[in-house]
What we know:
Layout: E1 10-13, E2 22-29, E3 34-37, E4 42-47, E5 57-62, E6 65-66, E7 70-73, E8 80-81, E9 83-87, E10 93-97
Antiparallel strand pairs: 1-2, 1-7, 2-3, 3-6, 4-5, 7-8, 9-10
Amino acid sequence: MGINIKKNDTVKVISGKEKGKSGRVYRVMPEDGRALVEKLNIVKRHTRPSATNRQGGIVEKEAPIQVSNLMVVCGKCDKPTRVSHSFLEGGKKVRVCKKCGEPLDKV
């Protein structure tokens, strides 16, 4: 089973502590089945001073979210949707919105 979420997709969280919130995916980790979404699932990490972080202290950053808890938001109908696949005339495979039938990928 593949992952139907790609980088720069707008997704909505359907379960968990961030349920109902939406954001943009900036990293997908298919080997783990997880994705990083901007400004969602924020965790606090206690870090010691280093070359990159001279101050150290408590750093807030995003933690990965399981892709089964995310749904892609269609750009046309603006609703969270399941994803199907179809082929265009040129033979290119695209992801398609199940609700309105509009392609989710840029053609």
